[in-house]
Amino acid sequence: MMYSDIRNLSEKHLRKAKDRSIWIDIPRQKTGVESNIRLLNIPVLIIEKYRPERKSDYLFNMRNRSSICQHLRTIEKLCGIAHLHFHMARHTFATLICLTNGVSMEAVSKMMGHSSMKTTQIYAEITNQKVREDMTKLATRTKGKYKINQK
Fold it and tell me: Is the same domain home to 78 and 97?
C-alpha cells in the first residue's frame, strides 16, 4: 500500500473470514484493481495497539504527507538508511515477505493490485538475483566441507 492507501484505510476495508483471519479488501488507488490481503499477526497487533487512539473510522491517525516524510527522514538518520520511501514497504512485502517465503507470483500480484503479471515479475527477478547471491555465498562457505563416500 502506498501512503494514501494507508491514510484512507478504515474499518469498512477489514473483513473477518470464516477461519477468523483478518483481510483487507480495498481497490488500489493507482490501478483500481481490487486488492485482497490477509493480515499477518504483526499488522493485526499494530491495528489493535492504535485502536484506542482513533479519532474516526480510519485505522490510523495519519498526518499530512509532508509531516510523514519528515518522520521518514528522522528514521533514515537513526537507522543509517540512505533514502526511505513508501514504495520500499511494498517492495519489501513482495520480495522479502512473500516471494522468498514461497507465496506464488499470482497471489503476490493480486495482493499488490498489479494489473499485469509483468509488473510482479520485476519483484521476482530481484528475488531470483538475491537467491543467486545467497547460493553463491553458501557454495563458498561449504566448499570442501562435505564429502561423499565412494564405494
Answer: no
* Spatial distance between the Cα atoms of 21 and 37, rounded to a whole number of angstroms: 10
pLDDT value at 124 more than 70: yes
Range of the domain at 23: 1-84
pLDDT band at 3 (very low <50, low <70, confident <90, very high): very low
Say which CATH number the domain at 52 has.
1.10.443.10
On the question of pLDDT at 47 being above 60, the answer is yes
Question: Do residues 77 and 95 share a domain?
Answer: no
Percent of the chain with pLDDT over 70: 96
Residue 73, φ and ψ in degrees, nearest 5: -60, -40
114 within domain boundaries: yes
Cell numbers that stand for 88 in this block: 520500499
The count of domains in the chain is 2
Does the model's pTM come out above 0.90?
no
Burial class (CB in 10 A: 0-12, 13-18, 19+), 113: buried
Residue type, 99: L
Cell numbers 557454495 correspond to 139
Task: Indicate whether 150 belongs to any domain.
Answer: no
